[in-house]
Amino acid sequence: MLNKIGPNEKISERHFLVKRVEKRPTKNGDEYHILELSDNSGIIEARIWSNALVNCTFEEGKIIEVDGKSQEYRGTVSLIIDGCRIVNSEEAESYKAKIPTLVFDIETVGKDFEELNEKEQKYLLENLEADEKDREKAKTKTALYSIFGMVCAIGCYNPDSSKGIVLAISDKEIKSVIDNFEYKIFENESELLKAFWEIIKKYEIFVSYNGETFDFPYLLIRSGINRIRVPIEIKRFGENFVDLMFKIRQNHSFKLEFLCTAFGIDNPKVDGIHGGDVGELFRDKKFQEIADYVAKDAKATGELYQIWKEYMSGKY
């Protein structure tokens, strides 16, 4: 196990997946190689110096058997490879590091247009929804804006365990009816957000569909309004934040439901519920329908992520 390798250990006949290969020059002009290796416990960097290259065969995406030793530099353990060879008896998938990954989706509900004061109404119609020609339709879009709306449900899904959890505001009991999903209910948005940020601290990769421009900013602003501390830094273009809406697009973005159909994934909109219906469902106290809908959305996004990761990401 990579996470149990300490400094100055002899490495003999250990098998790893080669995730990345990079060639670099030394100060005297010789070449050496840096390999990023993984097993299902993690990732480690390895070096093959020029004098050891004659004893090595390796290739990205292949399993190699390694002999060498470990070393520590500035608190980080890496490998020095004396010899390695490609072995073909194992499946590469079982050697991929399992980095804790959370797929999530939020549902929001907004104030009634009449609840806004005159300045807020004008701002919504003339600024935020200036491109919407149907003024009556524009009045129904308060849920899209965190200053006029709130988070009413969050679906979370772990693609490695195929298990999920729904956090939902409800004043009555709701049942877990989606396979492998647990439902938890809260009295208000503040308690829901606290629970979500506690969950998110356990993960390192965060997957969403339109999370970069909608879900994360919405969650951040609502957390600030509720004075809820956010425990991680949300980096818009960080590699640990995967927004599938931008990863899977052509000359424009696709709606999630059409991607699900194209990729053979159960369509979360199949029951006729869409995000725009959540406000009415919430006002009608149909909390079960909202919870089921966000669970299906999170699960579909997770299944789409697994396809993207394995076949489209270009990463082994």
Provide the descriptors you would attach to this structure in a database record.
316 residues; alpha/beta; OB fold (Dihydrolipoamide Acetyltransferase, E2P); Nucleotidyltransferase, domain 5; 2 domains; six-stranded mixed β-sheet; five-stranded mixed β-barrel; 8 helices
How does this structure look, described?
There is one protein chain. With 316 residues, the chain is an alpha/beta fold. It has two domains: 2-95, OB fold (Dihydrolipoamide Acetyltransferase, E2P) (Beta Barrel); 101-312, Nucleotidyltransferase, domain 5. 27% of the residues lie in helices and 30% in strands. The chain is built from eight helices and eleven strands. It has a six-stranded mixed sheet with strand order 9-8-7-6-10-11, with helices on both faces. Strands 1-2-3-5-4 form a five-stranded mixed beta barrel. Helix 6 (256-263) packs across helix 8 (287-312). The radius of gyration is 24 Å and the shape is elongated. The protein starts with 9 loop residues before the first strand and ends with a helix. 30% of the residues are buried.
